[in-house]
């Protein structure tokens, strides 16, 4: 590091990719407008690239100033193709005296995970079974057709309408899991086919935006349960999560809501409102403000199809009421499935931990069964999904024993619970966080 002469010499060599840097130097470039990261000991200046990054500027910026080797491998099923874009960004490499990991990341766990990934690749667990996804798409389309035929043949009575809404909510939830597969590039070998089918499923079958989902969800995977980096724990002051945030809010006398009752009002503003209100507004705002006209066209194709099918039976107002109720039901399904794997887990500020430790602290599994696999889109294997997000979900059950074995060997906690325990722990963790806030608010 040293004085200005050395820094000038290093910066002059950056453009030729011949610089030699320490971790301390890399870590200084971790701010907006000045961002470096490390992949396989190579140092890249991503300052100008972040705005063009296909996964969004934020997700890659979250790794500014640190090692991104495992995150890079996790998100890119075609690494050789992606390295073509990295080549112009190369400014040098780590000094030979520098370790492979930055800060206090566990080198033993890092190596253990990379060996596990090599074993998983050798076993062919990243290969897709096309029939699985064809059948899954087929059963979604069958549910859509069944809901429409139910109203067309049997009329619009209350019972038929309720049953239609349940069927549509089921198809929407299952389409949500399928778009998740395409969004993670886990179905086709070529990313462009995954992107195309992703837009079809999330746009035409669900009325949402692929780019909105990508930019939001990849951040969650890159830094799960980390405040200011994972948007899924940005609760807009409606809830306090984990054990750190409640105390911070309490000490600062922050009281946007009566947080000691959040485990109760969660049932009123959490599951009922996330998809039909918050996500819907955010999706539409994102498409318009970013001028994402392609996603908007895909989204409008869903609503055109829906209102063409149901307006003749219910009228415009009735069709709006029906889709709102469908979103209400779907939202409950989505919230409980996704939050039982994360809210009860460690939620805190950035600690710069290794990939295996970070993901295992933020996720837990739900017991495997045919129903749990279908109900949660195989996200009951949340640990395996977070470690290997591009892996086809039908292989999670095969990789799980390998992950568990590594965790047992190195003393890493691997949590698995029943479906009911998962639901219960969401509420109990909210209650615990609320109590921590109240104690800090009153006594600290």
UniProtKB/TrEMBL annotation:
GO biological process: unsaturated fatty acid biosynthetic process
Locations listed in the record: Membrane
GO CC terms in record: membrane
Bilayer disposition of the protein: Multi-pass membrane protein
Name of the protein this chain belongs to: Fatty acid desaturase
InterPro entries on file: Cyt_B5-like_heme/steroid-bd, Cyt_B5-like_heme/steroid_sf, FA_desaturase_dom, Fatty_acid_desaturase
UniProt similarity note: Belongs to the fatty acid desaturase type 1 family.
Transmembrane segments: 265-283, 303-326
Record has Thylakoid as a keyword: no
Pathway noted in the entry: Lipid metabolism; polyunsaturated fatty acid biosynthesis
A single MF term (Gene Ontology): oxidoreductase activity, acting on paired donors, with oxidation of a pair of donors resulting in the reduction of molecular oxygen to two molecules of water
Cytochrome b5 heme-binding domain segment(s): 18-95
């Amino acid at each position: 590091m040293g004085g200005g002469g050395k820094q000038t010499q290093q910066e002059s060599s950056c453009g030729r990719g011949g610089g030699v840097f320490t971790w301390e130097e890399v870590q200084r470039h971790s701010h907006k407008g000045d961002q470096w990261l490390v992949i396989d000991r190579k140092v890249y200046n991503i300052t100008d690239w972040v705005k063009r990054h296909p996964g969004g500027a934020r997700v890659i910026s979250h790794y500014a100033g640190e090692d991104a080797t495992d995150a890079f491998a996790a998100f890119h099923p075609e690494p050789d193709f992606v390295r073509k874009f990295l080549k112009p960004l190369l400014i040098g490499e780590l000094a030979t005296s520098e370790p492979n990991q930055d800060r206090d990341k566990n080198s033993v766990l890092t190596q253990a995970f990379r060996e596990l990934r090599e074993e998983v690749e050798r076993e062919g667990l990243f290969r897709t079974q096309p029939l699985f996804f064809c059948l899954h798409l087929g059963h979604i389309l069958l549910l859509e057709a069944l809901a429409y035929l139910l109203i067309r043949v049997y009329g619009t009575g209350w019972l038929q309408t309720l049953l239609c809404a349940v069927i549509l909510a089921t198809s929407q939830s299952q389409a949500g899991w399928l778009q998740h597969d395409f969004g993670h590039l886990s179905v086709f070998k070529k990313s462009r086919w995954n992107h195309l089918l992703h837009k079809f499923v999330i746009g035409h079958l669900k009325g949402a935006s692929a780019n909105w989902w990508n930019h939001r969800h990849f951040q969650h995977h890159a830094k799960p349960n980390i405040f200011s980096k994972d948007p899924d724990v940005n609760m807009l002051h409606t809830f306090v999560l984990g054990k750190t945030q409640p105390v911070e809010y309490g000490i600062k006398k922050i009281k946007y809501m009566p947080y000691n009752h959040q485990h109760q009002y969660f049932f009123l503003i959490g599951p009922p409102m996330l998809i039909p209100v918050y996500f819907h507004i955010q999706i539409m705002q994102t498409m318009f403000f970013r001028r994402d006209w392609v996603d908007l066209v895909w989204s409008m194709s869903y609503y055109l199809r829906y209102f063409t099918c149901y307006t003749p039976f219910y009228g415009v107002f009735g069709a709006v009421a029906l889709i709102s109720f469908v979103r209400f039901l779907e939202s409950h399904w989505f919230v409980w499935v996704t939050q039982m794997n994360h809210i009860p887990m460690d939620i805190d500020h950035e600690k710069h931990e290794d990939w295996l430790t970070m993901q295992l602290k933020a996720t837990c599994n739900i017991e495997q069964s045919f129903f749990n696999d279908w109900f949660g889109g195989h996200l009951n294997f949340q640990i395996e999904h977070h470690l290997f997000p591009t892996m086809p979900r039908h292989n999670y059950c095969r990789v799980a024993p390998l992950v568990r074995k590594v965790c047992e060997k190195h003393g890493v906690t691997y949590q698995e619970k029943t479906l009911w325990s998962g639901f219960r722990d969401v509420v109990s963790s909210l209650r615990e966080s609320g109590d921590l806030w109240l104690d800090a608010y009153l006594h600290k």
